Structures are given as C-alpha cells and as structure tokens.
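User: Predict the structure for this protein chain, please.
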Amino acid sequence: MQHDQMIGKVQALAQLPDRGSAEQATRAVLRTLAERLPSGLADHMAAQLPSALGAAVRETVGSSADDHPGTSGERFDLTVFAGRIAGRAETDEDTAVREAAAVLEVLDAALAPELTEKVAGALPADIRALLPAGRTTDDTD
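Assistant: Here is the predicted structure, written as structure tokens:
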C-alpha cells in the first residue's frame, strides 16, 4: 500500500479533518506500536511500510535499542498506549484510541497476513481489541 493511500484511509476511518492530522496520527500510532513490539518484529513491520512511515518505526526501534540492545518491547497496556499516542498526536486519549483503531485497521490491510498475526500476538488483549475483528480472537498476552 502506498503512503498517500494509507494516510487517506486513516483520515477517512478516523474522521480526521485533513491529511496533516492523519499523518500525525499515523506516525504517533506507529511509533507507540514500535515501542510495544519486540524490536525484530517492529523492524519487519517497518520493512513492509512506505519508506517515510517505516522510517518513523525504525527511528523508534533504533532509539530504544540503543538503551536496551535486543529489546523485546516495552510492556504497557491500553491506557499507556493511548496516553503516548495522545501526547504525540497532540490530542486527548479518547481521540487517540479512535485514531489507533483506524491506523491498526489500515496496517492490517497493508502488511502481509502472517506479519499482522505476529503483531496481534505480541499485543495484550486490551490493545489487540483495537484490531479489526478477525485479529482479536487470540487471548495470549
């Protein structure tokens, strides 16, 4: 999926007023997701994204790997996830959850199915609940 197509879909799904807001939301969600995922999985996700979005993921993975080489991802729940997205996207937590669900839906369509399954499996149930319905069935944390 191309960058402009992804941003347009996020804008529509999250009902954002403009592409700039959609870009900001997408980057905020991807960076926060990259913090939560094991670094190798985040790298694989970045490789399947358009270059500008993949770079945001790699930047996040690189900065956390500097602090914790071979990191397996931070452990945090939906409250922290939404709070970090809200801070990065300069919005409130309810809006951040709505934006995260939109970005995760677009991400589900953009990534290879086996990779989206791995991403879903790496998330706790409360964050995984934001994924499209077909990805929420596994109850592992």
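The chain has eight helices and no strands.
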